[in-house]
Amino acid sequence: MNGNKTNCVLLTGFIILAVFCSSGYMLKCYNCPLTALPCKTNITCPSDTDSCLWIKSGDRTLSDCYKYSNCDMNGIKEKYKFDNFNFKCCQKDLCNRSQTTMISTAVFSVATVMTMIWILCF
């Protein structure tokens, strides 16, 4: 029985490392043109961008990959040609989803790991 617990602990540690540690990390962001519909398309951002951008102009939103150092009112206004808008830049995977559909990806990751541990250890 003691060997089983040791194996379970080692397996749990390995799963956590495999899920949360990646050597070639690339940011993923939602990527949709200015639309009133919720954005469901996501992409792996190019290497010259390091943040996700969310813009709301009126009742429409835009989601894209963006360079964090340019994430200010003037930089966004110049690139996207908006006059009246709100924006958010963030640096976590898929953090630029619509404000009305904010469901944490971390919750799903933790639930998946916990389910795998439960199945493999008990």
TrEMBL record:
Complex and partners: Interacts with T-cell surface antigen CD2.
Gene field: CD59
A GO molecular-function annotation: protein sequestering activity
Record flagged with keyword Iron: no
Domain of life: Eukaryota
GO cellular component, one term: external side of plasma membrane
Membrane topology value: Lipid-anchor; GPI-anchor
Cited InterPro entries: CD59 (IPR056949), LY6_UPA_recep-like (IPR016054), Snake_toxin-like_sf (IPR045860)
UniProt-annotated location(s): Membrane
Keywords on record: Disulfide bond, Glycoprotein, GPI-anchor, Lipoprotein, Membrane, Signal, Transmembrane, Transmembrane helix
GO biological process assignments: cell differentiation; complement activation; negative regulation of activation of membrane attack complex; negative regulation of complement-dependent cytotoxicity
Residue stretches spanning the membrane: 102-121
Organism from which the protein derives: Chrysemys picta bellii
Protein name, entry field: MAC-inhibitory protein
SMART domains tied to this protein: LU
Keyword Signal: yes
Residues annotated as domain UPAR/Ly6: 27-109
